[in-house]
Specification:
It is globular, with a radius of gyration of 17 Å. Helix content is 32%, strand content 21%. With 260 residues, it is α/β, with parallel strands linked by helices. The two termini are 18 Å apart. The protein has a single domain, classed as Alpha-Beta Complex (Spore Coat Polysaccharide Biosynthesis Protein SpsA, Chain A). It comes from Vibrio olivae. InterPro entries: Nucleotide-diphossugar_trans.
């Protein structure tokens, strides 16, 4: 059993080097860093045998980038059905032991998709709202209007392993066979809601997301502004409608993954 880590960089080359996580990961896991912008510099990976840098196919969406990485693992790295494929953001600081212990727990408990407890601060006092209920249209509307978000789960109330509707794509761990069975992320989303969608489809296949609160990481997120008429606002609105239509069976997932 091998663990593959998919990290998509949007000009995060300096941050990735500064944080040093990837260097530490390379001792235990196979890491694939995918640049989504040209002119990044990951040459310092050249002497690391377990790190692959994909430096083409720029300006793709979050889901498509991770599908490209997974397809690369199929075509070039020999990923097997019983391996694990973990999607994690470049601005996520996590200890390699957390990843190894999480996958060991997934293996022991036959879990196909899992999430961990993310914080916004090193002192672990401020939760990242990374686990939620599936949203409906009113949840989206209230969130956009700044009226709160009833879909957010209170992590203070969750002390043990817990089934959640969905977890943020900043960290999602999949059994490789399961990621393949889902055809990965729906590439019809460019940004936003693709994590909701894949968790929704997974639950429909009988594999809900398992949240492990005792495995933790630090998420240094800088959320893009979603003010009216911005690109991010457009992406978010279009993704919301795609998810709602998908739930109704009116839209089918798109994927470039070709299983072999």
């Amino acid at each position: 059993m091998t663990i593959y880590l998919s990290i998509v960089s949007h000009g995060h080359d300096h941050l990735i080097k500064e944080m040093g996580c990837v260097d530490n990961f390379s001792e235990q896991f196979k890491i694939i860093v995918k640049s989504n912008k040209p002119n990044e510099n990951f040459d310092y990976f050249s002497d690391k045998r377990n790190i692959t840098w994909i430096n083409d196919l720029y300006y793709k969406g979050f889901g498509e980038n991770n599908n490209i990485v997974y397809q690369y693992c199929i075509d070039n790295l020999g990923i097997n059905n019983d391996d694990y494929f973990i999607v994690l953001n470049p601005d996520l600081y996590i200890d390699s032991d957390v990843i190894y212990n999480l996958v060991s727990k997934m293996e022991d408990e036959n879990v196909s998709i899992a999430a961990i407890n993310l914080y916004k601060d090193e002192e672990k006092k401020v939760y990242d709202n990374s686990i939620r209920k599936f949203p409906n249209l009113m949840d989206f509307v209230k969130s956009f209007l700044g009226l709160g978000n009833d879909a957010v789960l209170d992590k203070n109330l969750i002390k043990e392993k817990y089934i959640v509707d969905w977890a943020a794509g900043s960290f999602l761990a999949f059994r490789s066979e399961h990621y393949k069975s889902l055809s990965g992320f729906d590439e019809g989303y460019f940004m936003y809601c693709e994590d909701i969608d894949i968790c929704y489809r997974s639950k429909n296949e009988g594999e809900p997301v398992v949240y492990y609160p005792n495995f933790t990481g630090l998420h240094l997120a800088k959320h893009a502004n979603r003010k009216l008429f911005s690109r991010h606002f457009y992406w978010h609105i279009s993704s919301v409608f795609r998810f709602l239509l998908s739930k109704s069976g009116l839209v089918k997932p798109k994927s470039s993954i070709i299983a072999k």
